């Protein structure tokens, strides 16, 4: 048994749920499946953005496919979060059943619940995250950032953990409140403003904010996380136990959505632009989304070696005193390696 510093990372539920809903909870109807589904307003949550848009338009992607699989009407309420820790709190509280989320908050939540509450049921996106510094900056290596200020979206989110691990591996002493480099958890819109003002020496964030920092704020990418897991599909363990057939049908619909996005990139990008404008109440340049699109890859399943690297990163970043065993976090059918072994066995 181990004690993790991440226990201090989660504030009280009612102070951290920054969600907006597309539908109110209603009295449970046995003939209706109602699911509360989370995602972020990021390009790395493209599946959530596209599916949310379809729901808003009355052409629900998940709704139609789950109804066909279960024979019941399906209602999905979409919730939007700024970063992973808040979404994990919602899963703990059963305010939502599922969410697209980065791997680090999911790992932290799994450890926090001693392996009881959180499961990863599908991959979603790899890539789409980076460390951006000013174009004329001389910063190159972790050691160059001594005494500097770096912004991340939220304490303990995937980019926050990646940043802390990168600096730690580079020899800097990093703490949650200071150290050799100051890492400042800051919402993405505020990051952009502070970066333009010259008050940040770098920003470790996700698309479309990476491209926005480069295209409109004079930034350049120093560290590109093109090969890293950006987003997975997580749910509560109780949801899997109580509604296994719904979960199975939902994963199938998620994989079909991935394929639709791959086959219809222009239409998907247009939907992302529309949905981000709806959610952020601001104009989104289609060229920005087109640029961000270049750095993301849709994934049906989860790379276990890459997930284990995030465990190491969280340990390196000081969120854990020991490297935990995350066996059981990923359901077997969601693992990329499991798929490979199944194909190899079929070929023998």
Name the descriptors.
D-Maltodextrin-Binding Protein, domain 2, 6-stranded mixed β-sheet, 5-stranded mixed β-sheet, 14 helices, 43% helix, globular
CATH-defined architecture of the largest domain: 3-Layer(aba) Sandwich
- End-to-end gap: 41 Å
Strand neighbour order, sheet with most strands: 2-1-3-10-4-11
Count all strands and give the number. 11
Q: Please tell me how large the radius of gyration is.
A: 20 Å
| CATH class annotation of the largest domain | Alpha Beta
Q: Quote the CATH topology of the largest domain.
A: D-Maltodextrin-Binding Protein, domain 2
The overall pLDDT average reads 87
CATH superfamily of the largest domain: Periplasmic binding protein-like II
Morphology: globular
Provide a count of the helices. 14
Poorly predicted runs: 1-26, 339-348
Structural class: alpha/beta
Helix content: 40-55%
**String of helices and strands:** HEHHEHEHEEEHEHEHEEHHHHEHH
């Amino acid at each position: 048994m181990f004690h993790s510093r991440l226990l201090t990372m989660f504030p009280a539920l009612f102070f951290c749920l920054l969600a907006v809903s597309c539908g109110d909870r209603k009295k449970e109807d046995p003939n209706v499946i109602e699911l509360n589904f989370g995602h972020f307003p990021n390009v790395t949550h493209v599946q959530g953005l596209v599916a949310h848009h379809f729901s808003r338009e009355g052409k629900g992607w998940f709704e139609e496919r789950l109804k066909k699989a279960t024979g019941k009407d399906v209602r999905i309420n979409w919730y939007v979060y700024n970063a992973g820790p808040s979404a994990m709190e919602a899963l703990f509280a059963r305010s939502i059943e599922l969410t697209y989320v980065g791997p680090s908050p999911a790992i932290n939540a799994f450890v926090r619940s001693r392996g009881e509450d959180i499961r990863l049921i599908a991959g979603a996106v790899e890539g789409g995250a980076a460390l951006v510094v000013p174009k004329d900056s001389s910063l190159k290596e972790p050691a160059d950032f001594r005494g500097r200020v770096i912004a991340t979206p939220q304490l303990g989110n995937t980019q926050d953990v990646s940043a802390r691990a990168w600096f730690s591996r580079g020899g800097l002493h990093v703490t949650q409140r200071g150290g050799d480099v100051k890492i400042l958890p800051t919402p993405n819109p505020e990051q952009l403003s502070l970066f333009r003002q010259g008050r940040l020496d770098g920003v470790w964030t996700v698309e479309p904010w990476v491209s926005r920092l480069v295209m409109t704020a004079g930034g350049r990418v120093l560290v590109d996380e093109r090969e890293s897991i950006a987003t997975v599909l997580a749910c509560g363990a109780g949801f899997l136990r109580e509604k296994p057939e719904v979960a199975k049908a939902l994963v199938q619909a998620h994989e079909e959505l991935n394929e639709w996005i791959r086959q219809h990139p222009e239409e998907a990008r247009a939907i992302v632009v529309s949905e981000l404008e709806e959610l952020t109440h601001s104009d989104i340049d289609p060229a920005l989304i087109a640029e961000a699109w270049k750095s993301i890859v849709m994934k049906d399943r989860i790379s276990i070696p890459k997930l284990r690297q995030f465990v190491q990163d969280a340990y390196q970043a000081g969120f854990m005193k020991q490297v935990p065993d995350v066996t059981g976090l990923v359901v077997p059918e969601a693992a990329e390696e499991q798929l490979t072994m199944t194909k190899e066995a079929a070929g023998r």
